[in-house]
Amino acid sequence: MTHILTITLNPTVDISTATARVEAGPKLRCQTPEADPGGGGINVSRAIKFLGGDSTAFIAVGGETGAQLLRLLAEERVRFTAFSVNGGATRQSMAVTEEETGKQYRFVMPGPHWDQEMVEESLNAIAQAAPSSGVVVLSGSQPPGVPLDYTARLSRRLEAKGVQLFVDTSGQPLRELVKHPANPSVLRMDDVEAEDVVGHALPTRAATADFASDLVAKGVAQTVIVARGSDGSTLANAEGRWHASRAIDPAEVVSAVGAGDSFVGAFSLALTRGEEMQQALCYGTTAAAAAVLTAGTQLCTAQDVTRLLSGCELIAL
């Protein structure tokens, strides 16, 4: 099976808790918090682990929070390679659930600042750690100081090793990738990010597929995936366009945190196991649906994915 290396440049220790009501002014008494390792690539590796697969997580860490993060990963037996940063401590993020309404409030810190030397060292370290003819998954936000063309620079370094690059990004780095295509193997985004890129709403699956197909035609990526929230995900490449969905009873939804990372983990795992693109799309979509059934910052479980998979609907667009 093809090996997977996940990349997390801006990891976090995710803290989740709950309180009766969120309001300004009084001290809010919270439940005992839970701490989980977090950040895009880390969560992709965790999802792969939960689904019975294997990967290595390349993680940029600093300070005592970084040490705590590595301890949490070791407890989950997720294999990792640590890259030391000196621009500050690894960040924390917090998710607070308001018990009266079920609403979840998420607070995200910026992370340590990178200088140009750290950028170059990280690119060299990733290129060295990347498995030949394997898969590298770059997922999550970029720390302050990392240039917008980081993905393109990484793509060029990996191409010589025959490595497939899967990218899950947002904001300015995504817009940079669209403006100056690097043609990674896979590019994933959600519907809000896609609408920000195109400048107008994408109200239907067909509209989303048209947008994704246009990016493929422009060489932005070989395969483009757009998540449409509870409606599932749309995929387009040179071979065709498909949409996968796995409906979940709204009453069963606990937390949407981790759905995207669960998708990327399951999708990547399926492809490296030799599944066709359409089957991988279904597997990823089901994993995303399974993730909303878990609390706080937890991801999908193998049991839920297995139970839900037969109900995934796949259609050509």
UniProtKB/TrEMBL annotation:
Residues 18-301 form the Carbohydrate kinase PfkB domain. It holds the Pfam family PfkB. GO terms for cellular component: cytosol. SUPFAM superfamilies: Ribokinase-like. Keywords: ATP-binding, Kinase, Nucleotide-binding, Transferase. Belongs to the carbohydrate kinase PfkB family. This is Phosphofructokinase. GO terms for molecular function: 6-phosphofructokinase activity; ATP binding. It comes from Celeribacter halophilus.
